Amino acid sequence: MAWDVEGTKRRIYEAALAEFAERGPDGTTVDRIAKRAKINRERVYNYYGDKASLFSTVIRGELEKLAAAAPLVITCPTDLGEWAGRTFDYQRAHPDLARLVLWEGLADTGSVSDEMTRTQLYAGKAKAVAQAQQAGLVDATIDPAHLIFLIIALSSYWSAAPQIARMLSGGDARDGAEAARRRAAVVHAAQRIAAPRTTT
What we know:
mainly alpha
C-alpha cells in the first residue's frame, strides 16, 4: 500500500497550526506536533525540516490563504473599507492566524524567517493604496504603508484579543448579530480613515 505523502503532510501542517496557535513556537515541540498528527516525529523533519522551518511554513501558508480570500483592489473610495470587512470575516473564521502573528511578534528579534517574501506581499498592498491616492480615491495625507497597517490592526485585533472585545462590547463573537455590528464598525471606521479629504 502506497504511503499517502500529501495526506501526511497535511496532517502535520494542521497539527502544527493548532500547536503553534495554542502554545507558540517556543511552547511546543516536534514531539507534540508528531503526536497530535499521529505520525512518527522523523516524518516532520523529513517533510518540513526543523521546528522553526515548520513554523515559517505554517504562518506563511495562513497569510497566503488570507491574501487569496481578501484581495485588495481599489477602484472607488469605499473599497478599503470593504477590504477591511473581508479581512475581519476571514480573521473571525480563522482566529488561529491572529494568534500565530502575536506569537511571532513576541519572539521578534528584528527579522523573521521568509521576511523578504512576506514584505513583498505587504508592499503590494501599500502600492495599491499609493496608486489609489494618486487617483484621488484615498486620503493622500497618510503614508500608504501606515494606512495598510492601521486597517490590518482594525480588522484583526478583534480575533487577537477577544477578551477585550467581549469586555468592551458585552457581546460574544459567536453571536451573529454582535459579529455583524463589529464588522459594520470596522468597515465604517476604515472608510472614514481612508476617505479622501475634500477642500472647501
